Amino acid sequence: MSQTIAHPEASEVESSHGHHAELSFFRKYIWSEDHKTIAIQYLFTSLFFLLVGGLLAMGVRYQLAFPGAPVPIIGSFLPSWLVTSAGAIQPGGYNALFTMHATVMVFLVIMPLLIGVFGNFLIPLKIGAPDMAFPFFNALSYWLFLLSGIILLSSFFAPTGFPASGWTSYAPLSSHAQYNGTQIGQSCWCVGLFVNGLASIAGAANYITTVINMRAPGMKMFRLPLPIWALLITAFLLLLAVPVLSAAAAMLFCDLNFGTSFFSSSNYGQPLLWQHLFWFFGHPEVYIMIVPAMGLVSEIISVNSRKPIFGYKAMVFAMVAIGVLGFIVWGHHMFVSGMNLLLSATFSFSTMVIAVPSAIKTFNWMGTVWGGSIKYTTAMCFALAFVSMFVIGGLSGIYMAATPVDLFIHHTYFIVAHIHYVLFGGSLFGVFGAIYFWFPKMFGRMMNETWGKIHFALAFIFFNCTFFPMHNLGLNGMMRRIADPTQYEHLRSQQPVNIFITLSAFALGLSTIPFLINFFYSMFKGPKAPINPWKSTTLEWTVPWPTPHGNFEATPTVYHGPYEYSVPGMEEDYLPQNQPAPDTVRLAAH
Amino acid sequence: MAMSHDNNRPQQYAKSDGCARDGMNKFMLKQSSRTSLAFLAMVVLLLIASGVCARAAVRTSDLWWMPEVASKGGVLIDKLTYFIYYLTGAVFVLTQVVYIYFLVKYRSRKGAKATYSHGNNRLELLWTGIPTAIFIGLWGYSNHLWWDVLHAPTPPDTMEVGVLAYQFGFSFQYPGADGKLGQSDVKLIGNDNLFGNDPNDPATKDNFQSSVLELPINKPVRVRLNSRDVIHAFYVPQFRVYQDIVPGRTIDWVWFTPTRLGSYQLACNQLCGSGHYNMKAQIEVVTQEDFDKWYKEKAAAAVIPAGNAPAQSK
């Protein structure tokens, strides 16, 4: 793909708009069509949902460590679908807790944090565009997302409470009110995910159009910063996978409320159809939640190592390969579902193959730090930890990819450990790193590094204390999604481990406090940020704060790739993308 | 060892502990280079120690590790599990040692400038090719075993047992005196015919029902799995067996050979509703003599053929 020039008229209109008309409060902060404001709306909203999801997780952990014990202090205020009259969590309420924990974390926290926040904030700034291609759709996307969150959580107030069929909502448990007992909650789940899907699709179409059409002059595809590549690939995954979930959720809603039988075991329905539809979305979804983090982390590591990213093209091709292969591995969630055994064998093969691009990325991150001059900023600590945690999460995935081992550890705590290493130690650590890294450009002030390091240390230690022992629990045969492990003889000896994990999880929850204090304090009182605090090369660090609506005074021109650090023969150790290399210097790549 | 007070076998926690520490050094690098090197050495030692501890744990205890295997197929599966365990363990230790070495060695220092390098295509080929070969080889091994454990033709002396899962319990059906379960059909499953037995097949007439899954040792058993309402699962960790039980279908390819006498618990491991956490049944693996005795008594007592009595959970 050759150079594409930002539409000159569009940028003129946008910037004149920004300079002249003083926007009303409503247009500036509520229905803003400025991608930067929308990104910050996403950030506050999804951080709020992060706290909600975290609290639900605390409930889950409390029950597993102390089954049947009344919840201290708040127990007597909780609704009757959740707790007994004595204030202890009931088994059905426990199912509701983990169902909503996962739903909130996947759809209202990780996806919006990575895609809503950093997709919105970084895409126009990094490609030199004045805004997204469709600002109206962008604003609409945020409000649909917020609406979906409200719908999903509103069932808390229904007499039967939250949905309780797991975030995977396997039919016919989810499709028949007489089996799940939570018709309102489950219906809210379907509608919420449908609306959430609309938000994702609107966002994805917007991102793709923007990246393809609105790059500044000279910004060739292979000069795009890696976060933009990652978000572009993610947008394609969203556009192809999310409609399948939306359709499935609509079918489930009909089964549940109108007596259709798409997923019922009678009337020619097929329960496995739900699983195929769900995981056809669900596996690309896993990559939707990790690929953007890979992109963000790649950039943070390159900047803080003062080194070009190792194997830029290999990184891009690996992400493309993950995106393509991600659509043919969904069956590995279904090895023991009753699916044909030959299908399991083929899905096992594609699953083994998809591990290769992840390995390539890991080796390239190691190649990037090799020979670097590493600055240990808080953002860098989180990014480096991401790599190690992703290695653990990736390696534990191999156990499940081997079908016979899956016969033993399927649906045990081993898989719970695995997904948390990828989604928390991976995606969420990537998000934390990215917040510390781009905070100066979002809010014009620096976050406090000391408190940042404290946050990192606590999060890192207690994350591992919480999730690593879950591998052992899984190998010991502890089932996922049971409200009371002491019901089983082979699990009673494990109870000390469960208590230890719960205490660590509480500490992990508390480790968010230094982050939140740092975040809000720095927003108002932090030292004013220079225009380019990390001495970074990409275009977002060339605009001042507050960045005007329309971003760039004049459309920038791009002369070379994004990661020109420590170029020999130059005094400064970085060469911004909008500055041509001096005649005396020869760049090694594009 | 922060965790040792929580358990009575502290050394086996070394694995997680070591892992927590090896990453910790990432933010503790503003020390003199000697301290850093000492720290690196400590990390490496911890990694090795954690490997040794984990190995010791494998050998001596099933308290913090897999429950002792109790089936023929399970032994094969464990071999593969250990193979992957050593493979991934080696990859983890190697990559982390190199990574942490880089992180310490290439920390920012006055006057030191980073190497200007955009990559190396030969290395890219190397670290694409080797993992590909390993993963495809691993798939070959695991897939071979997959067919051996699940799909191989069952021996002629295999006993077939019917299993019905429902919210929230299990019921079992034995073939009776003729040794045959007979034909069944999911469409016939109902309150008066729990296992969907075909009334026109004489082999179903003498089937009898049990609330306990009684199995003779060293005899292969094939389970015919049915569910009456939602998806349940047939999970016995000691046998290394897991299979979802899907309503509207009969799943009859799961078989295993118990090899250790004793009591086990059959657990539902697919979320099936509010009673899921407690949906289980007792499995008794007994000698052939004890089994024959139990079988004869049960068969004789089964005045009403199985399916005509309401489900009984234990």
End-to-end C-alpha gap of chain B = 43 Å
Count of domains of chain A: 1
Order of helices and strands of chain A: HHHHHHHHHHHHHHHHHHH
- Rounded Rg of chain B: 27 Å
Largest protein interface?
A-B, 116 and 106 residues
Strand order of the largest sheet of chain B: 3-2-1-5-8
Fourth-tier CATH superfamily name of the largest domain in chain B: Cupredoxins -  blue copper proteins
Taking the sheet with the most strands of chain B, its summary is: 5 strands, mixed
Report a brief summary of the structure.
Chain A is mostly helical.
Characterization of the model:
The complex is a heterodimer of chains A (590) and B (314). Chain A is mainly alpha-helical and 590 residues long. Chain A is built from 19 helices and no strands. The radius of gyration of chain A is 24 Å and the shape is globular. Chain B has 314 residues and is α+β, with helices and mostly antiparallel strands. Chain B folds into two domains: 8-105; 159-301, Immunoglobulin-like. In chain B, 38% of the residues lie in helices and 18% in strands. In chain B, strand 6 (232-236) and strand 7 form a beta hairpin. In chain B, helix 1 packs antiparallel against helix 2 (33-60). Chain B starts with 13 loop residues before the first helix and ends in a 13-residue tail after the last helix. Residues 1-33, 55-61 and 309-314 of chain B have low confidence and may be disordered. Chains A and B meet through helix 4, helix 11, helix 12, helix 13 and helix 14 of A and helix 1, helix 3, helix 4 and strand 7 of B.
